[in-house]
Write a structure and sequence with these properties.
single chain, 123 residues, mainly alpha, elongated, disulfide bond, Cys_alpha_HP_mot_SF, Ribosomal_mS37_met, Coiled-coil-helix-coiled-coil-helix domain containing 1
């Protein structure tokens, strides 16, 4: 038994020749494909430290009509907590500069981009 005879357009349709060699669309970027001179200033997720000490100090102020002498102990506790948190932050910052495992902050990226700018012309 012989194969059935199909019209010519069926053969072109099955093989994909009906597309008439369409090319993929051209990609035209809206901006030049180079790095920017700086990145957006993203705020880091800061750890909230000394919140309880601050709230105790403010509650004391409210009870004593914002008199510093009556709340000297609470104010000193808050300042001690701030000093400890600042010291820990500095130590962590020193450790982060030594390890390159974490993502860079936006300020560090901007500093690097200023040191190594884009080459806009060829030598």
């Amino acid at each position: 038994m012989a194969a059935p005879a199909y019209p010519a357009w069926v053969g072109r349709w099955v093989t994909g020749q009906w597309r008439q060699k369409k090319r993929p669309p051209l990609v035209r970027p809206t901006r030049p494909l180079v790095l920017a001179d700086k990145v957006a200033n993203r705020r880091e997720t800061a750890d909230t430290t000394c919140i309880t000490e601050m709230s105790v100090m403010m509650a004391c102020w409210k009870q004593n009509d914002f008199n510093d002498t009556a709340c000297a102990k609470e104010i000193q506790m808050f300042y001690d907590c701030v000093a400890r948190a600042e010291k820990e932050r500095r130590e962590n910052e020193d450790e982060e500069t030594l390890s390159s495992q974490r993502n860079l902050t936006s300020s560090k990226v901007n500093k690097l981009l200023r040191r190594f700018p884009n080459i806009t012309r060829y030598a």
